[in-house]
Amino acid sequence: MEHEDPTMQGRYGHITQGMREQLLELLDGPWENAIASRFEMWPTSPIPLLDRELARWRAGTAAKVVSRISARNTQGLTA
Fold first, then answer.
1. 45 and 51 in contact (C-beta within 8 Å)?
2. In angstroms, rounded to a whole number, what is the distance separating the alpha carbons of residues 77 and 72?
């Protein structure tokens, strides 16, 4: 990491539970929205993994999610 101040290494050298939760939130919204968009185009897929995701939409058990954290504005991420 090559910081002159050795205390800076601790800031970037570990991952906290809060960081994990924020990353999941950051990634979950776009993923769910992508599946929703794909479902609107065609509700099935010959690819088993994708078809399992689409099945939640066919069953009516999934809801479109909008991430509260913008990928372009991650300044609000905290440790």
1. yes
2. 12
Instruction: Please name which of 71, 37, 69 lies closest in space to residue 53, comparing C-alpha atoms.
Output: 37
Residue 25: pLDDT over 90: no
Torsion (CA) 37, 41, 44, 45 in degrees, nearest 10:
-80
Q: Per the structure block, which two tokens stand in for 40?
A: 């609107």
Say if pTM beats, i.e. exceeds, 0.70: no
Distance of CA 37 to the CA centre of its chain: 16
21 CB-near residues (< 8 Å, 6+ apart): none
- Residue 24 sits at the vertex; the CA angle it makes with 78 and 3, to the nearest 5 degrees, is 40
**Tokens in use for 36?**
């929703």
